[in-house]
Specification:
Distance between the termini: 27 Å
Shape: globular
Strand order of the largest sheet: 6-3-9-1-2-8-7
Strand content: 25-35%
Length: about 160
Amino acid sequence: MQINPKKETYSIFPVGRVHAEIEGGFTLHVGKAFCSALQELHRFSHVQVFWWATDHDTREDRGRLLAELPYAEGVEAGVFACRSPYRPNPIAVTTCACLQVDMARGIIRVPWIDAHDGTPIIDLKPYIPVSDRVREAVVPEWFENWPQWHEDAWQLEGMVNTSK
């Protein structure tokens, strides 16, 4: 499969790394060169973390265009219709509560992120309700019983089939 016939390339480099803390929770460590980019982030309750799914950055995984949904047994969807890490460009995004920002040290404390320890962070953006949510979103039936709000997502732990 030829993904990009023009053979265009773009440079993406990590601005930081995810760190799983031994005592629980996570920290996002931003490189020293990017610490000043954290200015005023502490004023936001949430941050969107764009990260590179390094565990799925293989020729095979990048070529997968369909994924079985672990939360919808028997449903297969295109990777553009789900949050699977299998993607032509393995970019993932997680909205995290921003518990603490230490601009001087380049550290953001978050309670949870669905990325592994050491995962490269490629960008951070503040969560802004007027830009990042819609009033009447429509989702497929396999999301019908999911909580409506991010803060209630902990309820999903019992709903997701992790046997696959």
